[in-house]
Amino acid sequence: MVAKSVVCVFALSLAGTVSGGTVTFHKDVEPVLQKHCQTCHRPGEVGPMPLLTYAEARPWAKSIKQATATGRMPPWGAAQGAPHAFGNDPRLSQDELAVLRAWADGGAPEGNPKDAPKPKQWVEGWDMGEPDRVFQPSSPYKVPAKGTVEYTYYIIPNAFKADTWVKGVEIRPEARRVVHHVIAYVRSPKSSWLKDYPAHTYFVPDHRSREEKPREEKAHEWREFLVGYAPGYRSSVWQSGRAKFVAAGSDLVYEIHFTTNGTEFEDKTLVGMQFAKEPPAERVMTNAVMNPRITIPPGADDHKEEAAIEMLQPAKLVALNPHMHLRGKAFEYRLTYPDGRQETILSVPKYDFNWQLNYEFSKPLELPKGTKIECTAWWDNSPNNPYNPDPKVEVKWGDQSWDEMMAGFFEMAFDRNVDPSTLYRYVRRNTPQQSASAVR
Is residue 2 part of a domain? Predict the structure, then answer.
């Protein structure tokens, strides 16, 4: 998980350091890097360079100053002024920004190594800590140097011998340069989804087998979103008393989107899990408010689409994760309570496809029965969008990055004895009556 913002006492001490003497790496800068940067900037992680030592950080002093001052780093898309705090907000305080600025402007001195904080202990290869079990395909997928790779699936059958409560889960691709995203699904023993395809081999299902589930089939008897991976999305670890449920006999199904970049790669994506020792009080599920019927006109620079669900049972809102593709411009979540009160709980005014961020509430939001979760998305399909693959075409829902999606992922916690298929329903006519677990 991304480190939380620094506490006030630490911030005050930094302010005193900036105003009272020379800012040095070991005494002043290293603690900031540990809290906000080293999660990504260490060997084997997504950051392009490690920032664990003075020798590693010194050449980047001015770049660090600029990237943090402009808000480009650490990545964070939420607008200021949200009514509820996010526990994983990585943004630096003004005092921390002043420390990095003073260090760069002062020639980036090292200072006394004895002033250094104790090195942060990372579990090699895992952000969440040591997993209890690791799943991995038995053979690698060979990603070609060129061309389009359709969504690829891999099934590990009967992965769970007994009913299991998962308290932490993380996906780690081996070839991150060509892995656009991964979703790990749990397939119930009752499900017929992809049953005609073999296990322990990579395959691309035909269109019919990938259609949405029959409406009469309960969502939790079809497939469930366990965890996802995309740039910026890290591990999911739930607090004590919460976990995701996996029924005995369930299969683990990978959905992997590879993108070619001119070089051949091999990938065997890992899924690590930590298990709860006893059943929790609350079950966690990941769902989405989505609109797969979006239609974005050619050249439109501010096209808007909406979707919403209504809670049929009380629950707690734990986290949010907006998802669009290259034309994505902005995304907003709102709550409308049964008494008519409304509030915007997340606004992402400058959506960045390169950083698929999870926004975790410091304190989960109570969702009474009858509460609506409403999402609005905007796209820029004009020539002014530098990432636009083709502003001359009408764009609809599709898998590839040059298509589009509208999925307002949300994570909720509820009494473990509640049937998850009774939790909510879609309320907009332009959104199919389907479970959000059907998002591709």
Answer: no
- 312 with 251, same domain: the answer is no
Q: Verify that 81 and 136 share a domain, yes or no.
A: no
Among 260, 280, 300, give the residue marking a domain's end.
280
Distance CA 98, CA 104 (A): 10
Is the full-model pTM beyond 0.85? Answer: no
Point out the domain boundary residue: 90, 115, 140. Answer: 115
Could you give the 3-state DSSP secondary structure of residue 96? Answer: helix
97: confidence class by pLDDT, cuts 50, 70, 90: very high
Position 216 pLDDT exceeds 70 = no
| pLDDT tens digits for range 317-367 | 999 999 999 999 999 999 999 999 999 999 999 999 888 899 999 999 999
The token duo for 87 is: 């526990």
Could you read off the pLDDT of 252-294 as tens digits, one per residue?
999 999 999 999 999 999 999 999 999 999 999 999 999 999 9
Same domain for 276 and 286, yes or no, is: no
Q: Is 261 helix (H, G, I), strand (E, B) or coil?
A: coil
Q: By C-alpha distance, which of 4, 23, 3 is closest to 13?
A: 23
Mean pLDDT for all residues in the chain: 87
- What's the number of domains the chain is made of? 3
Residue 20 belongs to what domain range? Answer: 8-115
Whether residues 106 and 153 fall in one domain: no
Q: CA-to-CA distance for 232 and 1, rounded, in angstroms?
A: 10
Q: Are residues 171 and 220 in the same domain?
A: yes
Structure tokens at 402: 């040059």
Strands 282-290 and 242-246 turn out to be: parallel
- The Cα 391–Cα 294 span in angstroms is 16
In a 10 Å sphere around its CB, with 0-12 CB exposed, 13-18 middle and 19+ buried, how is residue 222 labelled?
buried
Q: Is residue 3 part of a domain?
A: no
Residue with tokens 């059943």: 279
How far apart (Å, rounded) are the C-alpha atoms in residues 396 and 402?
10
The CA distance from 88 to 78, in Å, is 11
Residues 260 and 287 in one domain: no
